């Protein structure tokens, strides 16, 4: 590695003050610190030693936690394609072909998201003279996982640019943003190009093949919603009898939990989201309080809906809410973003709980938005500072009361 | 105590038992062996005005070449001129060192072979009223050991604190064991406590380590309320102890004294001299021999360190690695420091250092950080900065190492924003740098936490 180090040391003066490429210093620095942890030492006064962690390591932990979702998403994209076009029925049949289809669809999306995000980061770093933020390592992976595999690449690029600029950089970069960046990207797509991210046609990649007769590309949420409107059979029955041309039990509880269903690339599998949650909680990178209270909030609200059920959707057993749509993925990876979440420990309980509750309210009662997690997270991002405000105020009040006792 | 604080306290007689859960012990290689080493004695000693944080307008009372005795005034603060800063040893003033813009850095003394003392005469505490006692102590050279909270500055003898706190144990990395360092000083500690008791309108609290037995030197002291604290660092920090026993509100004054100071005050009371001798812990992974050494305040470290190193590229820290100060191989120990720590200098690059699995010490468990698997291991820590400064991202970590009902991140953000009301309301009166030093260590975003704390204190102090 000495060769690399020497090379960097040789180039360094060019990027430092007075050098030819002084303006690109932060771009150079980002590359340099990626390759080599810096040789800075601690100051004269204060802590003389530092903890081995840094922000890069923390962020990469989140990326690693998403890999099960990514790998599952790649295979599932291929699997759904073969299922819908009648190419296969068995889960592990045509393993190589399915993986290939998935990789060819998903990999470009990941690359585009990283490239678009990286370019925006670099431009802002150079113009605003701040270091390149490691946050985009996470954002660049999150965005591909919350869009359908059929999303046009230019839309991915546009959404990434929009989100990084509007949701993050205008506030001053990672750490300063109010909204979760990846959720903002998805919301942008949802409102700007609804045709490519909602409805029944986008979740399964068909390519130039024809779907089998009787195929429906609807998601579980849509099926349940329709059951609620029609009221001819219970929501669970509707799920069970859906798309039987592709095999029975496509939308039974186990299959929903496993995630062998159409949906956005990385969000279909509750199991894989939980594996990610396990990594995040075990490493202490994400708040278990938000995850636990998020799932609890969804269950509680689902149960409350049961109590006041006037249609079949409201009567849906609450545990189904956990396994449908992007709820699990959203709670595990989006709600726990430490910057946009509540930052006080008490606040985290409230914040997570309300995300769960709101998601179910939006799902069940709002016909315009079949999936509630996206708006619930963004909504609570906005309210997190308010929650914290009251928690912090309580802290101040305790201090004042102590003085007057 | 806060509703959400994890501390439990209970009353037994007068004293209190407080069990703390939040915090983090940094176990390091290079603990001082419990013996007095035969290092060559230090020759020069220095008073560093920069050690006294609140010192506003220093004035040197001696010139290079003057001879002084132990206890001879050599420095005052024109803003608080009844408090004198005295020579720790007798000898000749060899240098009055100034830095940029003539900032006073060091007044160093070449010590006599036998120390001669200024004779102040014994003090009969009972016959003096409070102010007379305070005046005597202020002129003794021992007064700077008395620190005022809020702000962590040298106390004003004209003011009366609501209580005085002594922390009887130090939980910092490689900190000296007071039971060893102060053995034989019982009488002086007792006299010191009696003097302090007269200076406050309230109690003198002596807080001892509740997880170990009380060391013999503290076991039979009278006149102080003895409380037991247990838990990881910073349980031994006097600021944390104050928070749980008699918290400081706006407008209130509390004084703190380290046991070293109490003993020196007591010696002044009983013998009428300023004896600045102290037993210093010489610690750190880079030393061949880590042990205690008997010397005086402000000792030059070279005779303890040179020839005692097992590697070439080291950093000498006056104090501990969390709150200490980098000094040179010929530097002087700070007035308030009772240990030196010698660690490897960390000015190296590391290929993919942020991604490689590492057994280096971390409070965290993020990917590849393996130290949580070996909680009892002693670590070699170097001075590498471990990454670059970033905006606050991770939350909840500072709270988990701060056993006080304080929200460190909100307080630090208020300081950055210079929001005076917020700084005050979020508890600046209760902390000094050392109370949030662990936050600086564990910080993912590598903020200069202690520097910020001082900035916040000064914003309030001088507003």
Q: Profile the largest sheet of chain B.
A: 8 strands, mixed
Mean pLDDT score of chain A: 92
Oligomer: heterodimer
Quote the distance from N terminus to C terminus of chain B: 29 Å
How many angstroms separate the termini of chain A? 64 Å
Query: Roughly how many Å is the radius of gyration of chain A?
Result: 23 Å
Count of alpha and pi helical runs of chain A: 16
Largest sheet of chain A: none
> Which two chains have the most extensive interface, and how many residues on each?
A-B, 62 and 77 residues
Number of E-type strands of chain A: 1
Strand content of chain B: 15-25%
Largest sheet strand order of chain B: 1-2-15-14-13-16-11-12
Q: What is the ordering of alpha helices and beta strands of chain A?
A: HHEHHHHHHHHHHHHHH
Number of helices of chain B: 12
The mean pLDDT of chain B is 94
- The assigned structural class of chain B equals alpha/beta
Which spans of chain A of ≥5 residues are poorly predicted at pLDDT below 50? none
Residue runs with pLDDT of under 50 for 5 or more positions of chain B: 1-13
What key phrases describe this protein's structure?
heterodimer; A: 405 residues; mainly alpha; 16 helices; 62% helix; B: 463 residues; alpha/beta; eight-stranded mixed beta sheet; six-stranded mixed beta sheet; 12 helices; disordered N terminus
């Amino acid at each position: 590695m000495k060769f690399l180090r020497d090379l960097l040391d040789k180039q360094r003066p060019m990027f430092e003050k007075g050098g030819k490429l002084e303006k690109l210093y932060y771009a150079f620095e980002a590359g340099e610190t990626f390759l080599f942890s810096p040789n800075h030492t601690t100051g004269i006064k204060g802590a003389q030693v530092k903890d081995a962690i840094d922000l890069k390591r923390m962020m990469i932990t989140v990326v690693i936690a998403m890999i099960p979702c990514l790998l599952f998403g790649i295979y599932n994209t291929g699997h759904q394609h073969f299922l819908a076009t009648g190419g296969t029925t068995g889960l592990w049949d045509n393993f190589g072909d399915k993986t290939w289809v998935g990789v060819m669809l998903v990999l470009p999306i990941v690359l585009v998201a990283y490239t678009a995000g990286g370019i925006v980061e670099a431009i802002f770093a150079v113009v605003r003279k701040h270091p390149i933020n490691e946050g985009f390592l996470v954002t660049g992976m999150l965005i591909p996982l919350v869009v359908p595999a059929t999303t046009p690449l230019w839309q991915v690029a546009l959404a990434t640019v929009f989100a990084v600029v509007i949701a993050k950089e205008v506030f001053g970069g990672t750490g300063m943003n109010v909204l979760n960046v990846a959720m903002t990207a998805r919301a942008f797509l949802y409102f700007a190009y609804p045709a490519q991210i909602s409805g029944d046609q986008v979740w399964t990649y068909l390519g130039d093949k024809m779907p089998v007769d009787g195929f429906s590309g609807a998601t579980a949420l849509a099926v349940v919603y329709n059951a609620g409107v029609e009221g001819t059979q219970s929501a669970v029955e509707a799920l069970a009898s859906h798309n039987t041309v592709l095999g029975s039990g496509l939308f039974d509880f186990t299959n929903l939990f496993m995630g062998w269903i159409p949906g956005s690339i990385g969000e279909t599998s509750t199991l894989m989201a939980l594996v990610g949650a396990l990594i995040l909680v075990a490493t202490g990178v994400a708040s278990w309080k938000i995850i636990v209270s998020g799932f609890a909030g969804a269950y509680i609200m689902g149960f409350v809906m049961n109590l006041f059920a006037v249609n079949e959707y409201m009567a849906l057993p609450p545990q189904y809410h956990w396994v449908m749509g992007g709820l699990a993925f959203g709670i595990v990876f989006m709600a726990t973003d430490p910057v946009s979440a509540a930052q006080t420990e008490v606040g985290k309980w409230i914040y997570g709980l309300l995300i769960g509750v709101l998601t179910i309210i939006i799902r069940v009662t709002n016909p315009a938005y079949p999936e509630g997690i996206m708006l619930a997270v963004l909504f609570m991002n906005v309210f997190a500072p308010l929650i914290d405000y009251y928690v912090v105020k309580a802290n101040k009040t305790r201090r004042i009361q102590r003085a007057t006792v | 105590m806060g509703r959400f604080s994890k501390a439990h306290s209970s009353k037994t007689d007068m004293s209190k038992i407080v069990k703390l859960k939040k915090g983090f012990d940094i176990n390091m290689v290079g603990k001082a062996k419990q013996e007095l080493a035969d290092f060559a004695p230090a020759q020069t000693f220095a008073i560093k005005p920069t050690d006294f944080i609140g010192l506003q307008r220093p004035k040197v009372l001696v010139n290079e070449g003057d001879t002084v005795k132990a206890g001879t005034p050599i420095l005052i603060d024109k803003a608080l001129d009844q408090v004198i800063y005295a020579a720790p040893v007798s000898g000749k003033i060899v240098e009055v060192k100034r830095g940029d813009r003539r900032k006073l850095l060091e007044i160093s003394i070449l010590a006599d072979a036998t120390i001669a003392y200024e004779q102040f005469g014994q003090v009969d505490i009972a016959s003096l009223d409070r102010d007379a006692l305070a005046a005597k102590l202020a002129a003794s050279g021992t007064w700077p050991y008395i620190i005022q909270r809020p702000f962590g500055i040298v106390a004003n003898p004209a003011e009366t604190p609501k209580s005085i706190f002594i922390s009887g144990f130090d939980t910092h990395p490689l900190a000296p064991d007071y039971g060893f360092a102060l053995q034989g000083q019982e009488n002086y500690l007792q006299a010191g406590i009696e003097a302090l008791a007269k200076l406050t309108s309230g109690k003198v609290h002596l807080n001892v380590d509740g997880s170990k037995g009380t060391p013999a030197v503290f076991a039979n002291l009278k006149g102080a309320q003895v409380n037991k604290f247990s838990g990881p660092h910073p349980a031994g920090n006097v600021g944390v102890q104050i928070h749980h026993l008699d918290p400081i509100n706006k407008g209130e004054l509390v004084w703190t004294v380290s046991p070293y100071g109490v003993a020196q005050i007591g010696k002044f009371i009983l013998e009428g001299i300023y004896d600045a001798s102290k037993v210093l812990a010489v610690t750190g992974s880079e030393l061949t021999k880590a042990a205690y050494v008997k010397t005086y305040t402000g000792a030059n470290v070279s005779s303890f360190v040179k020839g005692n190193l097992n590697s070439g590229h080291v950093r000498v820290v006056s104090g501990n690695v969390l709150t200490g100060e980098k000094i040179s191989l010929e530097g002087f120990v700070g007035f308030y420091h009772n240990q030196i720590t010698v660690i490897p200098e960390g000015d190296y690059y590391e290929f993919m250092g942020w991604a490689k699995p590492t057994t280096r010490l971390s409070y965290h468990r993020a990917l590849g950080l393996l130290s949580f698997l070996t909680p009892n291991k002693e670590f070699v820590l170097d001075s590498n900065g471990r990454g670059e400064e970033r905006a606050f991202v991770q939350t909840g970590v500072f709270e988990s190492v701060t056993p006080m009902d304080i929200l460190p991140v909100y307080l630090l953000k208020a300081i950055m924003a210079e929001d005076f009301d917020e700084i005050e309301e979020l508890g600046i009166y209760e902390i000094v740098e050392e109370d949030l030093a662990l936050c600086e260590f564990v910080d993912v975003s590598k903020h200069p936490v202690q520097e910020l704390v001082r900035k916040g204190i000064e914003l309030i102090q001088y507003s």
